[in-house]
Here is the input.
Amino acid sequence: MCLMKYLFLMSPRSTNITFQEIAHKTKQDIGQVEFLLLKAMSLRIIDGVIDQIAGCISITWVHARILNRKDIASLSSKVCNWEDELDEMLKSVGMTVQSMHST
Here is the structure.
């Protein structure tokens, strides 16, 4: 559960996580992290790609769970940030299209 909560609260841009970071956040021995990840993947709590050589995982999906008020506020903040990023991207695309039409 600790792993799932940590992954849920992460930024969507930070999908690569080291085993060391997971060990620290979950208070597990570094040697147990890979087993923890494999178990979470087999239970379909998370999905991702484990890189044993680099000692990290690239998370692609985290199972939805019941949210408390703090989690909802965090999710709301992420959606607002995403909306701002989309607005900036749309402005940039609009400027590019205008410059293409004017030449």
In short: Residues 22 and 33 are 7 Å apart (CA to CA). The chain has four helices and three strands.
